[in-house]
């Protein structure tokens, strides 16, 4: 009996005859349609069929495992996509909230800057009336427990005036 090594390489020679060239063209076309197949796979399938080997002796096809792996990869890709969408939606909401707070602070600082520049023109009794008004406006926009550090620092300067 012939002893085979672990890996045996055999070759197939195609001659320039019309029959061999047309067979080679069919093989190339078949391999283009099924990129997961190799020439070796086709030769082995043809040998199994030509030698009439029973189905029980044939090795199981790789396509079942390949399909299973591809399905797992597809599922993981869907999960990653879903996770990215949820993450970006959450971050987008956070960004909008921060932008809204920055806009509020900018408006409040602008209002305070206007008040500070107008204060020397106004009589001394009027500034005390406008300061609580600013504080009320600030608290109407934000709950009382949220005190902005920038506004508290600016209010110290107003108190010094």
Please give a structural write-up.
With 161 residues, this protein is an all-alpha fold. 70% of the residues lie in helices and 0% in strands. It is built from five helices and no strands. It has helices at 18-33, 39-50, 63-118, 125-141, 149-160. The longest helix is centred in the middle third of the chain and has 56 residues, at 63-118. The chain is rod-shaped, with a radius of gyration of 40 Å. The model is unreliable at 138-142 (pLDDT under 50).
Brief digest:
The chain has 161 residues and is mainly α.
Summed up, the helix count is: 5
- Estimated structural class: mainly alpha
Q: What does the largest sheet look like? A: none
- The fraction of residues assigned to DSSP E strands is under 5%
Summarize the topology.
Elements: H1 18-33, H2 39-50, H3 63-118, H4 125-141, H5 149-160
Characteristics:
mainly alpha; 161 residues; 0% strand
């Amino acid at each position: 009996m012939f002893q085979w090594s672990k890996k045996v390489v055999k070759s197939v020679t195609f001659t320039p005859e019309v029959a061999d060239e047309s067979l080679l063209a069919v093989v190339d076309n078949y391999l283009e349609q099924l990129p997961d197949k190799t020439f070796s796979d086709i030769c082995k399938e043809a040998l199994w069929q030509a030698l009439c080997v029973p189905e029980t002796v044939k090795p199981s096809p790789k396509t079942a495992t390949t399909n299973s792996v591809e399905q797992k990869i597809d599922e993981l890709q869907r999960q990653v996509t879903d996770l990215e969408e949820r993450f970006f939606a959450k971050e987008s909401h956070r960004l909008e909230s921060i932008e809204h707070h920055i806009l509020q602070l900018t408006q409040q600082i602008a209002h305070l800057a206007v008040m500070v520049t107008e204060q020397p023109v106004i009589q001394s009794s009027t500034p005390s009336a406008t300061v609580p008004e600013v504080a009320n406006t600030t608290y109407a926009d934000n709950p009382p427990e949220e005190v902005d550090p920038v506004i508290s620092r600016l209010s110290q300067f107003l108190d010094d005036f």
